[in-house]
Amino acid sequence: MAKKPSKVIITCAVTGSVHTPSMSDHLPLTPDQIVQNAVDAAKAGAAILHLHARNPEDGSPTADPAIFDLIVPRIREQTDAVINITTGGSTRMTLEERLAYPLKLKPEMCSLNMGSMNFSIHPAARRIEHWKYQWEKPYIEVMEDLIFRNTFRDIKHILSVLGDECGTRFEFECYDVGHLYNLAHFMDEGLIKPPFFIQSIFGILGGLGPDPENLAIMRSTADRLFGRENYRFSVLGAGRHQMSLLTMGAIMGGNVRVGLEDSLYLSRGELARNCAEQVQKISRILGELSLDIATPQDAREMLGLKGMASVTY
After folding, report:
1. Which cofactors, if any, are listed as required (predicted)?
2. Interatomic CA distance for residues 289 and 284, integer angstroms
3. 0.90 surpassed by pTM
4. Is residue 3 part of a domain?
């Protein structure tokens, strides 16, 4: 008898640090907007909420714990979704800045980029004629000459101070096949233990391209390195590749991530008005595939999380 498919975890990445206000009027910028988008996404079926913060004055990315404190406790009051705080922040932030709020909150889950890399959307600057804020255009253009830093020592430090000392588990963000091997290195060193939550990312300039064949390569490589029983696979398709790659990933037994951090659109030429619209769309697709959607409690059990009672909001 065939094994019943696992429930599918939907992660929603609400705002991120890559897109800028001029790219969409619907991008959540203020604490109120981020909270509302997060809560509505959870109501629509997102079990995990991946969170960044922004300066409410101009929408620029920030790691300020005071801003996070205007967001996270309010989300916690309105939903039992797993709250996942970025440790990536942005390419402009130091490691200390990126870890400031995670170390204060000690959340159930944090994201963790599995290597240093070129990470850029600088060609997007050529498509924007009118900018709302002065910081936006240089912020995008300078990405051509910036590197996102996460060295082996940086990753080891994050695993120690957040994982070992705080009981936080990780959304391991893997932008290329080499990042899976980095993850395997830390497993071999005994610094991480299954179940791993691997977020495979496609379509970012500097990372693995959005070809469907690459999804199969990431899945098969993870199987060889970890054994399918030891990890949960998830798929992030950037921009216009979001829904097609997520659908393919779900068919292959994976989980999915949506949200305005990853794509500003709902369909070709149609901007998403909020994150919940994307959650609703992928939920419909999963339903058509006869796949069940994981609740927040399902996700906690599947990923071995410590539970929200262990987090002081």
Report:
1. Zn(2+)
2. 9
3. yes
4. no
